[in-house]
Design goal:
Blueprint: H1 27-41, H2 51-74, E1 76-79, E2 83-89, E3 92-97, E4 100-103, E5 109-115, E6 120-129, E7 135-146, H3 149-154, H4 159-176, H5 180-184, H6 188-203, E8 210-221, H7 227-296, H8 298-315, H9 335-349, H10 368-379
Helix pairs in contact: 1-2, 4-6, 7-8, 8-10
């Protein structure tokens, strides 16, 4: 028969313990016994139901105070300067905290720190099909940072993974609508800008809380099987650009020289014109001053003009006249010096090489002596 069957039985294990009829132990009695034992250890005397009971109340209070202090200190946390904290209360978003020392309810609040200032990088690469049905390997890298911590954490499951997929989609879309020559050579900047714009359009509806800082076009190359042919094509295009630049530089250098040469010739022509006009005016002035002298003494003036003319003629010739009559001495003449001096005088009196020199004609102006003779004959 079980000890707890109805009826009179004394088989309860909590009764007759130690030969006495007693019930299960009480919590207060356990605490009192513990207090008595502790008091006995420290030499204190206890009375029944008095000091033991007060000691148990004090112990519970001390434990409660210690627990509260530990709980209070466990709620302090720090948000770094470059971060923002998202506070979740029972799993629900309740606010954002700024950098500094903060406090939260332990086991109630949860804080998620988010880096807001660091610039992050994300690469993307792969073989892609172009518009002209060629395969090209493109490598691109973007730089981004977080601008909205709440959207970055709660808008999608993983904002970084969503951005990665969006980048791959934008890159393949742009490369698929471009030609291979543009991707490999002159259209790289256009491809970069197009990928940036397309990526912004893709991530805008998802509100990822991210902003694209920069897009870098790292490399674009054809498959290894056709790499040599494309290298030759690129080298030819670069040579074409170089030759065009050299031609433009030559044109910019030779054109100012030609203009300067033309300007110099114009200035020399104007100077020669002025010289001829001034010489003519001088001859006229000389004739006007000589005419009264000739009218006053025609013979003397004629002889003077003849002698001056002959002196001018003989000074420009290489002939030397020597009178050796009545002498036996050998005369040394520095003919080389005389000829050299005559050549120097001839070059000095001749006009510039580019100015045409006309031969005197029947209609040319007469010399001073001829004009004087005709004037004198007219008077006679």
């Amino acid at each position: 028969m079980a000890w707890n069957e109805p009826g009179n039985n004394d088989k309860d294990p909590w009764k007759n313990k130690g030969g006495k009829n007693q019930g299960p132990p009480d919590l207060d009695e356990l605490l009192n016994d513990l207090g008595k034992k502790v008091t006995g250890i420290f030499g204190g005397k206890t009375t029944k139901g008095g000091p033991g009971k007060s000691f148990s109340s004090i112990g519970v209070s001390i434990l409660l105070i210690i627990g509260l202090v530990v709980y209070a200190f466990s709620g302090f946390y720090t948000i770094k300067e470059a971060e923002q904290g998202l506070v979740l209360r029972f799993g629900q978003y309740s606010g954002t905290v700024e950098p500094g020392l903060r406090w939260k309810w332990t086991f109630i609040d949860r804080v998620i720190p988010v880096d807001m200032q660091s610039t992050r990088e994300m690469p993307s690469s792969g073989f892609m099909l172009t518009q002209d049905e060629n395969v090209v390997n493109v490598e691109m890298q973007i730089q981004y940072r977080v601008v909205d911590a709440r959207n970055y954490i709660f808008s999608v499951t993983n904002a970084d993974d969503s951005l990665k997929q969006s980048l791959d989609s934008a890159l393949r879309y742009v490369v698929g609508h471009a030609k291979m020559d543009d991707i490999l050579t002159s259209g790289r900047e256009i491809i970069r800008q197009s990928v940036w714009e397309e990526l912004d359009k893709i991530i805008e509806p998802y509100q990822l809380g991210l902003i694209i800082v920069d897009v870098n076009f790292k490399d674009a190359r054809p498959p290894n099987e056709v790499k040599d042919a494309f290298d030759d094509a690129i080298a030819a295009q670069e040579d074409e650009v170089r030759f065009l630049r050299e031609a433009e530089a030559y044109a910019r250098g030779i054109e100012p020289q030609a203009r300067g040469r033309v300007k110099r010739i114009e200035q020399e022509a104007l100077a020669y014109k002025s010289q001829i006009v001034l010489d003519a005016q001088g001859e006229v002035a000389k004739f006007e001053k000589l005419l009264p002298e000739y009218l006053a003494a025609p013979e003397v003036t004629r002889q003077r003009l003849y002698i001056a003319t002959m002196e001018n003629v003989y000074s420009n010739t290489s002939k030397v006249m020597v009178d050796v009559e009545g002498g036996n001495n050998m005369m040394y003449l520095p003919l080389d010096k005389i000829i050299q001096q005559q050549s120097t005088n001839t070059r000095a009196n001749s006009p510039q090489s580019y100015v045409p020199v006309s031969q005197p004609s029947q209609n040319s102006a007469p010399s001073t002596s001829d004009r004087a003779d005709r004037f004198n004959s007219g008077r006679n």
